[in-house]
Design goal:
This protein is mostly helical and 80 residues long. The protein has a domain at 13-25 and 35-66. The chain has 2 helices and no strands. Helix 1 packs antiparallel against helix 2. The radius of gyration is 17 Å and the shape is elongated. The chain starts with a helix and ends in a 14-residue tail after the last helix.
């Protein structure tokens, strides 16, 4: 299977939707009481989605590194 820019863009768009969902859930969390079973379940759901997002971001990074003719992208390094 040939790797294309479309592969990582698809992953990126899905990650973006997931991140928006997480942001919305965090905003809605303020309407829950600070303590209690419902608040704990809601916080757990947010943590699960964050874990899924982290996995998706790792996948995007892997796909980007496999694109032909592209240099690895590392935020702390600069081209010399």
């Amino acid at each position: 299977m040939a790797l294309s820019a479309d592969s990582w863009m698809k992953e990126y768009n899905e990650a973006l939707k997931l991140a928006d969902d997480i942001n919305g859930m965090i905003s809605e969390r303020s309407s829950f009481p600070a303590l209690g079973a419902d608040a704990q379940r809601y916080a757990s759901a947010i943590r699960r989605k964050i874990t899924i997002l982290r996995t998706r971001l790792d996948s995007i990074q892997s796909l980007l590194l496999k694109l032909p003719g592209k240099l690895p992208m590392y935020p702390s390094s600069s081209p010399s």
